[in-house]
Design goal:
Order of helices and strands: EEEEEHEEHHEEEEEEHHH
Shape: globular
Low-confidence stretches: 304-309
Largest sheet: 6 strands, antiparallel
Structural class: alpha+beta
Mean pLDDT: 93
Number of strands: 13
Bound molecules: zinc ion
Helix content: 10-25%
Radius of gyration: 23 Å
Strand order of the largest sheet: 1-13-3-11-7-6
Distance between the termini: 48 Å
Amino acid sequence: MTTERKMLQELIIEPGTGKALELRRGQILRIAQTTGRQCADFNCFNLHDYKEFFHTGRTRHLHGMHPTKGDFLWSAPPRERPMMAIIEDTVGTNDVLYPRCSAFLFEHQYGLAVHTNCHDIQAEAQREYGLTPDDVHDSFNFFMHTGVAPDGHPYIAKNMAKAGDYVELLALMDVLAIPNVCGADVMMTSNFELKPLKLSVFDAADSDWAKVNEPPRLKNQRNPEMFKIKNIKADRELYKDISYKPDFINVPIEISEIEIELSDEEKEWLSQLTATGKYGESEVEVLRYVFHSWWIDKFMRGPKHVPKG
Ligand SMILES: [Zn+2]
């Protein structure tokens, strides 16, 4: 029983900087505002295998564009494990849509050839662990207030974080966690001004673990032991393996037909549903949709984004 949190470390990161922190499973990183309205970009690697890293895409898919308390930070396929759990979020405006700001962005869009930026800050902080600028990955953007306009373009809105606001991440595996002060001061991201952020690391209490939903453990969450090539390629040039023979999994793909009998009432319902044109062009297409909806209801974990009739 661990009833009390134990503080392990506390530090301030100044504008233009970030810090790589080793967190063991069961430790918490708190990223807190000092004076408020500051975005924090974030990278995360498996401490024992840097090829497993945080994936904005799967996280966005499972939790939407603004993950918050109760959501996970997932690693990229084929690992797809929850690396960290968001256990507190006092603002609720986070973003996994925008990429990190970069030197190119400020030069290209603003004519600023010299400017602090998240990519270069991450690269410098990760260098402490031997990673290169190519290893920086898409960021989780804490306290970044974003949305999508009706024309499909993303936009950045006013930063809502006030002094003292914070997010807390519980490590579900040993990770290298790298928060940085976002360098974007010429856009709304941090309300046109860069401010320090306060980082704290704790040993979690039982009450912290109680906030974490049981994550899935499935056989398709793969690890390097299951890879045909187990070693990481060390040279930059790509060249063909002349002994390569394709060996795709689940091939040949097996498809079996099933027969369904419909009552008169169901046939009528199917023809009405088909007439709406929303779910397919033919009754067979609509039946596939209906079957899909039934399958989702029966088996799917997590959010269900099937439009209801
Ligand atoms: Zn940035």
